[in-house]
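Proteins fold. Shown next:

***
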Amino acid sequence: MKELIETIVKPLVDFPEDVLVNVAEESDRITYKLNVNKSDMGKVIGKQGRVAKAIRTVVYAAGSTQQKKVFLEIVE
C-alpha cells in the first residue's frame, strides 16, 4: 500500500524525493501519513481537495481487502 501511494503521488509533485509515507498500525485501523515538500502541498490536495479525494478513493479501494480500516492523512 505504501508503494501504491508513492506511485500515485510522485508524478504529481516537483520534488518526488521528498515524498515520504509513514505507517501507523493500530488494532482496528492502519493510518498512512503522507509527507510532501511544502511547495507541493497544493498539487497533492488539488482544487477543493479533488486530487486528495481521488488518492484516498484509490487507497481505500485497494485497502478494502484487508480486515482493518485504512486511512490516509496528508501531513504538512
Helices lie at 2-9, 41-45, 50-62. The two ends are 21 Å apart (CA to CA). Residues 50-62 form the longest helix (13 residues).
